[in-house]
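Q: Can someone sanity-check these two? First one:
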Amino acid sequence: ALSPTNCGYQVPWTAAFRDQFAGVPLKNVCMRAGSMQARGDAMVTKFGIEGGPIYGVAEAIYAQGDQREVSIDLAPDLASITIENRVRAAKPGLAMGKLLKRCAKLAPVAISLLREITSNQIPRDPAQLAFLIKTARLKLGEPTTMAKAISTRGGIMHSEFDARFMLLARPGVFVAGEMLDWTAPTGGYLLQASFATGRAAGLG
């Protein structure tokens, strides 16, 4: 069966967060899922989140089944101990937004994301705050539809066609690209492999 990959995921944002930040990128973040990680800019959307870092860990997210989540490092260029020390040295009573901006260089969308996933219960303890910034856990809902996905997983299994890409059950019918059961990590790999298998099927 075909299913979407290299795609965004639904997140049940609060109305306040969605209305203010839909269309705003989370710049320079590192996302982790399972043993995979990817760095880049993720985009907050009206329905959830999408972008390169999400696509980069798509297979690990898929492996989680219905318990989908990613861990987001909102300050990948700063060590956790650096953030912790900065928080510890900050002026007592500093507003949380200013504290996060000064100690971790977080943009408003990142600060609000932390409020969103903690139900506005961001810890002030330096170690706990640094840990949260480096490993913010975001639960994901269903993936976007195949119509909106960059590529798909699933398709015709390798055992069903020969070295010429001809279907064993239907001689004279050749298959290529996303008709086949394989998964591309990005749109660029998808295109290259589709061109290559298309050429191979044509030669076959």
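And here is the second, same format, sequence then tokens:
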Amino acid sequence: MVIYCLGYNPILILRRKTMKKILSVMLAALMLLSVASFTSCGEAETLKFGMGISAAYGDVTSAEGESNGTGEVIATVAAVLVDANGKIVKVELDTADNTVEYTSTGAAVAGEFATKYELGDNYNMAAYGTDLNGDGKVLEWYAQADAFETVCAGKTVEEVKALVGEDFYHGGEELAAAGCTMGVTDFIAAVEKAVANAKDSTATADDTLTVAVVTAQSTEDATADAEGSSELEINFAAAAKKDGKVTVIATDVLAATFTFDANGAATTDTTKAFATKRELGDNYNMAAYGTDLNGDGKVLEWYAQADAFEAACAGLDANGIAALVVEGYGVESLQSAGCTMGVSELVTVAVKAAK
């Protein structure tokens, strides 16, 4: 009786308690969703990372009198970061246009090699190029390459391929408006390969993208009994890096050999297609003919050894990568990982990309 006189309703109180519990659960759920949403918005999207190389012969000539014979290889490297929708977030490019020489007496000439980006204003496209978009000026090579990279951002590889103009060599209207009026077919081919090679990585749009090229030359003079040769081993590296450290890196090597006789006549087979060591895959035959240097009873193929090298570079700065080589070969941890080949050139080009 007292209960009812005081207006106490146990059913109503029970309902109120139930409602409070339901509201508490709903509020907690909303808070969790808010936190999850905030975390998702705060985390940068991880991107696919890839490198591609497009190479072809340029001029190959025989020596005549005082004029040396020449052998030219043009190799373009592209690095890309690609999002989950196949859009290119960033692209970085460079071209190694390397020419070797040999004399009319069959002697190979030692050369010096720099990429077009490294030549900068000394490449002289601004001075000698042709004004194709009618704006009264020709940008230097590096500025035109920068323009191409900017236009590519936000596009799929199919949209990049569509940037070529009516002559299927120079860029179309969009590239011309940006100042890129030079031939872009090599760029497009390298970008297409880079996107095809792109793999999941921890790189984000905040990472800086770089490419690097280092060319090593070895020569042999011709004799009456044997051809001479000038071989270029062009080492490539692409890296995504942040806060001075490499997030992810890719490496590859292209060999280009030019041959000539004792009179300086070119004998190079220019019909042979170029393939990098990665592209050769198992056909490079390092596993079959390499030397077991770490005593584990096997020799990995070149690409597998390069994979081990790249994995060791992740998280290191330029100095850390430089410390991976001792007397031309990898340090003990690198050897144990299966990378037993000489790594001097790979280290040099990786350090260049990491700086």
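A (reply): Looked at the second one. The two ends are 87 Å apart (CA to CA). The longest strand covers residues 245-260.
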